[in-house]
Amino acid sequence: MDLDHLDKQLVTLLQEDCKKTTKQYADSLGLSKTAVYERIRRLERLGVITNYVALVNKEKVKRDFTVLCHIRLAQHIKENVLRFEREILKLEEVSECFHVSGDYDYILKVHVENMTKFREFMVTKLTAISNIGSTQSSFVISEVKSSTAISI
Amino acid sequence: MDLDHLDKQLVTLLQEDCKKTTKQYADSLGLSKTAVYERIRRLERLGVITNYVALVNKEKVKRDFTVLCHIRLAQHIKENVLRFEREILKLEEVSECFHVSGDYDYILKVHVENMTKFREFMVTKLTAISNIGSTQSSFVISEVKSSTAISI
DNA sequence: AATATATTAGAATATAATTCTGTATTAATT
DNA sequence: AATTAATACAGAATTATATTCTAATATATT
Fold first, then answer.
1. Interface contact A63-B150, CB threshold 8 A
2. Which residue among A134, B48, B59, B134 has the highest number of C-beta atoms inside a 10 angstrom radius?
3. Worst-scoring range by mean pLDDT, A126-130, A148-152, B136-140?
4. A146 to chain B: closest CA residue
5. Domain assignment present for B52
6. Same domain assignment for residues A134 and A71
7. Tens digits of per-residue pLDDT, A26-35?
8. What is the 3-state secondary structure (H, E, C) of chain A?
9. CA of B150 to C1' of D30 (A)
């Protein structure tokens, strides 16, 4: 596994837009269609590229209200921690959940329609999970930067 | 703008994998290729789907160390706030930056290779930005859930 | 009910992906 | 250094898919 400069450029392009034609990437890189085609297959085979997805405009699908929820667990007994994580995976409003160091144990990214729906989510879903000690919600006022790309 | 059940199903499928053939989506939805083709074009035209991207495995590109940085500004004068946001946009290590309510003003998602690189980032880039009051770093121990899809 | 509009299916066509062939380049082996 | 093997490449040939076209059907509008 070693990516040369062309591979890195290609990954960068694919992270920006994966729906261009092979010819277009080829022109950007100064390679032939076949060369690019083989490189993409290789990046997929190596697991560098994991999948290709469509991104949606949250406003257009009425999930424009984003909250970063900080959670402290009540106790850190293994079984309870695992149950907590299992429950989180089931919540459709949660797109991301990180186990973190620091003041809190977990940080979640939650997408809902509005404050009313968020309250509903908190009351009926999140705090319904046992073992939650305390939560602190940071409401997203604006997305200064929002990219799925990893700079390489 | 009103998405029917088929549109929502289609958006869900495209958020999971946007590289299937029109025929495959058509079979999943019980529609013809043309019907699906037209619906996808419409979703793009309406701005529901904004773009198509490749996702990469952070481990494979040596950006496996993720940190959520909480930032408090020193002062909230408009010009300084805008300068801060402009500077953040330039930092390649930062994939996301949210202006939030609560204890801190901003929460950043940062991807680097390791702790050494993170320290370097903090010292030479992040805290080099003027107007930063204080920071609190939450190191990601594990990604319990990590999706780019919005549930609709 | 009549008309317009949008959605659909299937066929025809255009475009792009994939495979194939041969060549050049690089790396490995002796 | 010469030889072999492996890899990456370009261009042509083929296959598969996207896109367009046509006509029919459904949905909404008056």
1. yes
2. B48
3. A126-130
4. B96
5. no
6. yes
7. 999 999 999 9
8. CCCCHHHHHHHHHHHHCCCCCHHHHHHHHCCCHHHHHHHHHHHHHCCCEEEEEEEECHHHHCCCEEEEEEEEECCCCHHHHHHHHHHHHHCCCEEEEEEECCCCCEEEEEEECCHHHHHHHHHHHHCCCCCEEEEEEEEEEEEEEECCCCCC
9. 40
Same domain (yes/no): B70, B130: yes
Shared domain check, B87 and B23: no
Note the pLDDT tens digit of each residue in B131-151. Answer: 999 999 999 999 999 999 999
Strand C contact at CB of residue B127, distance < 7 A: no
Range of the domain at A27: 5-45
pLDDT of residue A1: 72
> Domain check: are A62 and A103 in the same one?
yes
Are B41 and B64 part of one and the same domain? no
Question: Is there a domain that residue A127 lies in?
Answer: yes
Q: Is the CB of A6 under 7 A from strand C?
A: no
**Entry pTM:** 0.94
- Nearest residue of B to residue A47 by CA position? B57
A33-66 per-position pLDDT tens digit: 999 999 999 999 999 999 999 999 999 999 999 9
Residue A151 lies in a domain: no
